[in-house]
Design brief:
Two copies of one chain form a homodimer. By secondary structure, the first copy, chain A, is an alpha+beta fold. The first copy, chain A, has four helices and seven strands; from the N terminus they run H-H-E-H-H-E-E-E-E-E-E. In chain A, strand 2 and strand 3 form a beta hairpin. The first copy, chain A, is globular and about 45 Å long. The N and C termini of chain A lie far apart (42 Å). Chains A and B meet through strand 6 and strand 7 of A and strand 6 and strand 7 of B. Strand 6 of chain A pairs antiparallel with strand 6 of chain B, so a sheet runs across the interface. The first copy, chain A, binds a DNA duplex through helix 2 and helix 4.
Chain lengths: 149, 149
DNA sequence: ATTTGTGCAAATCGTTTGCATCTGA
DNA sequence: TCAGATGCAAACGATTTGCACAAAT
């Protein structure tokens, strides 16, 4: 029942982020109650993988009232601002990762569970050159897994 | 205006595949007119990346009448039969690749164009171990690119 | 006061499904 | 003949959008 304190806007959000308000402003985004609340959920609990739906449910459960549309908007705005990374995992749902550093993922199709590949466990050797006139923006590696036997 | 010849069912489809009919039968799929026609488009022109939509348009343009639903069905059946590989490229559309060997892809978000990373240009070093009780089914690498400047 | 964000519900997009009809073995 | 395929259109799930209201600077 910990209400998110709207007065806490210029401070650390919940032990994770330094200054979400500042980052939002830098991105031209107003630090609204919803954005700060969602930011608290996202960045106050370590690395996370969420979908719009799971984040929305979590917000509801936490007593934060936000519409699903706003969750979508916020996730995209955060992504554009560089606070999140969107993951191209599956054909249907879009996943967002609070860890924007270079790392890769396991994805279990039966269940839609996403997890990190331990850093260092896997490397990409020899990045290829992009085709003429193109530049590489990111490299996504998805290791698909399924329950054994 | 080369009509696909329905009589050519037991033979090479168009210079690419040996015996599509046999492969379909082996997979428990009847070699119907539609499946052979779509197979001709898919396997008779070298390696290809298609979506249901692009393949459907191509079929129409070639004078082959198939419904979009049948294209979807066929793509999935071919995939299950191991003739195609489905690519988890983007959040929305599903791509299918006629090259089922291990290779990776460039994906240009602006335009949705998919192309192969030249084989050997890139390697994955050190496949990680799957989490407890899981096994790896595939590893997909997508190199996202955008037009330079 | 002005500008930007939010919520809701309707609209959209890709994909799947139910069912009557047709086709290949 | 008869199981299996196809076509159509309606159903679906995830995401986006338009517009009236609310909140932040």
């Amino acid at each position: 029942m910990t209400d998110f304190d709207p007065a806490d806007t210029g401070k650390a959000v919940s032990g994770g982020e330094e200054n979400l308000t500042g980052q939002l402003k830098a991105a031209g985004l107003r630090p609204t109650r919803q954005r700060l609340s969602l930011g608290g959920l996202l960045f106050g609990n370590g690395d996370r993988h969420v979908t719009a739906e799971t984040l929305h449910e979590e917000a509801m459960a936490a007593g934060i009232h936000v519409s699903l549309a706003t969750v979508y908007n916020t996730l995209h705005q955060f992504t554009d601002a560089g606070l999140l990374r969107s993951l191209p995992v599956n054909g249907s749902k879009t996943y967002f990762d609070t860890n924007t550093t270079r790392h890769h993922h396991f994805y279990c199709e039966s269940g839609g569970v996403l997890s990190d590949v331990p850093s260092g466990a896997m490397e990409i050797a020899g990045l290829p050159e992009a085709p003429e006139g193109m530049e590489i923006t990111s490299v996504d590696v998805v290791v698909r897994i399924r329950p054994k036997a």
